Amino acid sequence: MAQASESLDLSINDNVTDHALDRDCTTLSRHVLQQLQSFSPEAQDLSALMNRIGLAGKLVARRLSRAGLMEGVLGFTGEVNVQGESVKKMDVYANDVFISVFKQSGLVCRLASEEMEKPYYIPENCPIGRYTLLYDPIDGSSNTDTNLSLGSIFSIRKQEGDDVDGTASDLFAPGRNQIAAGYILYGPSTMLVYTIGRGVHSFTLDPSLGEFILTEENIKIPNHGSVYSVNEGNFWQWDESIREYIRYVHRTEGYIARYSGAMVSDIHRVLLQGGVFLYPGTLQNPEGKLRLLYETAPLAFVIEQAGGRATTGNIEILDVVAKKLHQRTPLIIGSTQDVAKVESFIQNGH
């Protein structure tokens, strides 16, 4: 009897060990291949691209973890980017990291970032590079100097045509043309969340392995959540319909305000717990602050794949066609019921 019990214990321990090994072996690049159920050239390209994005995330995370101990990492550069915003030193570093990582990939011909006025072309890649990486290297850079959460946002699109005139006009297409998108969250742990149109999956960086390891597959956003996330300091700059929505949540039991100053952090919370994130336009700037190609479209792709919605208030974000590289849009994103509630105020006033 004792021998049978011992045999059972060994069997259970073996199963636990096998499960742990399978988990540790499910790296980001392997997961992409499993999602596509293929080792075709395109599947291997996407796997390699995601692996490169992961490498960029590791480099940025390492820099952030040592930022307070190194000179010349924190603070402003004294320059202003194409958006008219003061540039942080970490913005420049993270932007350079993505360029450096993808120059070596042989897969990407162009990179476009909110920190650069024009796309960055990699001539040596152009004969073979079939993809464009669009990214926000540091989301929430105002949090850099106070050791709060930050993020990076990315999108991958297939390059259409040769772009010989350097206008990147093929990028002026709906967000539904993205083949992959996601974000990296730099917090207590570094997480990477991505979609290739087959659900949303999260990975956590294991420092002991130096790899992003699968955390959760097929994440589904709740249909409704208690959190609303918005910078209420802009209250008097919004249209009356948005102000009325805020008054509604103030007087309705069950709503909780959460706003970190880093959109990736706030949207990650909404993805897991439900709710809504808002960045409306203002009366002076109806298009708002957020960039379509680098921020709102990639995040909309993720949230839609998780079962949520993303809209400007009038049109789905993924249906918006860019007219210029740095086009901005308002953003209402999150659980379907909560996004619909905001829309009801925009469209009907209640």
Give a quick rundown of the structure.
The chain is an alpha+beta fold and 350 residues long. The chain contains eight helices and 17 strands.
Q: What is the overall silhouette?
A: globular
Number of helices: 8
Strand content: 15-25%
**Rg of Cα set:** 21 Å
Low-pLDDT regions: none
Strand line-up of the largest beta sheet: 4-3-5-6-7-8-9-10
**Helices and strands, in N-to-C order?**
HHHEEHEEEEEEEEEHEHEEHEEEH
The end-to-end span amounts to 70 Å
Description:
The chain is of the alpha+beta class and 350 residues long. 35% of the residues lie in helices and 23% in strands. It contains eight helices and 17 strands. Helix 5 crosses helix 8 (336-348). The chain is globular, with a radius of gyration of 21 Å. The model has no long low-confidence stretch (mean pLDDT 87).
